[in-house]
Amino acid sequence: MDKRKLEESFFKGVMLFSTFVVVGSLLTIIATIFIKGLPALDLNMLIQTPKGGYYLGKEGGILNAILGSIILGFGSVVLAFLVCVPIVFYINLYRKKKSRFAWLVRFVLDVLWGIPSIVYGAFGFTLMVFFGLRASLLAGIVTVGLLIIPIMARSMDEVLKTVPMELKEVPLALGSTRLETSKVVFRQALPGILTAVLIAFGRGISDAAAVLFTAGFTDYLPYSLFKPVATLPLSVFFQLGTPFPEVQERGYASAFVLTVLILVISILARVISGRFTKNIVK
Amino acid sequence: MEFKTHISVKNLNLWYGGQQALNDISIDIPDKKVTAIIGPSGCGKSTFLKSLNRLIDLQDDVKVNGQVLVDGENIYDPHVEITHLRKKIGLLFQRPQALPMSIYDNVAYGPRIHGTKHRKDLDGIVERYLKLSGLWDEVKDRLQGPASKLSIGQQQRLCLARSLAIEPEVILGDEPTSALDPISAEHIEQRFLELKKQYTIILVTHSLRQAQRLADYVIFFYLGNIVEHGPAAEFFRNPKDAKTQAYINGRFIEGRKADKELDLKGTVCPANFVKAKLALEGLDEGKVLRIIVDYEPAVSELPRAMEYEGHKVLEVKRLSATDWEIVIQRL
Hints:
Strand content of chain B: 25-35%
CATH class of the largest domain in chain A: Mainly Alpha
Strand order of the largest sheet of chain A: 1-2
Number of helices of chain B: 12
Shape of chain A: globular
Oligomer: heterodimer
Strand content of chain A: under 5%
Strand order of the largest sheet of chain B: 6-7-8-3-9-10
Distance between the termini of chain A: 40 Å
Number of strands of chain B: 14
């Protein structure tokens, strides 16, 4: 009996410790950027573009990067969404459970998920060269889109797998086509699909390596698909990379802005998805 | 008795992977009657049901040959428009599955996809079929509320209304009452009795009592074969096949439960005869005794002896490598 009790408390301890490590590191990260960045954060940082190229002027703001990141993030999420929904519905509703094709698609997506974002950046760059495109918002959207497609698709896939088989069968039994059935399943899975989109958005907006070569950098606000665009992760990268403590501090402030941005969008999306859950079948 | 039919199954064979699940099934389903499909679990009842509207197509590794003729058309013909076929055949599942939408939209779903768009027509359809399924009075004030908030019994009636709303000719039920409480189950049974005037109803059921209450025609499945089928009254009164008899009798026991248990393990003849005889005589007439034995000769000899004593042997079943169960009714 004692041995069983010991075992129980040991593993409970391990579980608590792991939880503590995860939550603790999140809190530490937030605390670090909060403490280091907050002194440098003021309204000007949010509403002005940088003064003095590459943020070296220690003045002005990061509005170019905030807007750039939001636009690039939304653009790539929309692009990825348009690709992911058909893939995921195809392998879940048009193919049978043990389909080899579906297995292959999932395998490919898992491999793609594991590829480092710098490789996506390099791939995006070769595409740009091929099409004769310069570093631009469009190239950034495409590259980040490619980067988040596997993440979004596999998350959605897991969501669709949890939809009960009966819910897929009922519309079909009523004489629906598979497309009409997909619409019903879409409704049921909507909160999960939104979560998948969010995960992908968070990953896309915060990735620096993928946009390094493709989206480029500029001090100006984004105004054209074919011009370079500034992004928050790169601002953080550049600012932290300077030898000036004041600019480094502004880097932490930028990181803080990025984190808050992701947080706000997560909360917004949850509130919005909450409105769609009324009819969900549990 | 002669029946008209518009569902006629001819030499239907079905395999899951290499495993044959339906074995040369040929049967005509009578029109405007309740046909009950009975048989032990895993004998192909549900598979057969789902092969009638080709929902079986969704399963992995399914191979079908043979014919299912609905209104004279073989539904496994590649040219068949499957959405039209399924519109003719409504299906009720074991667990009611509401669609993630309002009560109104659940019923209107089928008519909408089949082309009824006008709000007024839909209003009429929703009201008519909710009334027909006996749910209208309970939900008429909250038609726009989510269907998932209904009780499970109400959901099954909603599913019935939803199936009826596509105006099918046939209603299939895959154990539609087995997940429900007794009162909800009775509601549904009542609906079936009313609906059979207009619809052909095919029910898979685990409950022999339900089959007896509802069915006009009974099909007994065993290991992918149809063992016996016929009009219900005849089927239950006078089952011809030994397997059918065993199944019908066996199932009655389960419903009844033994009144007394007697453990005769380690006891040999003739001591076990005497003990069993005394135990039976200690019971009231019609009561049931369940005996466990592990002595091989007793398995055949004990029932014979008790029959001789004037009691009725209901079942002899192997429980494990060594143990047998003998169920005897005192007469």
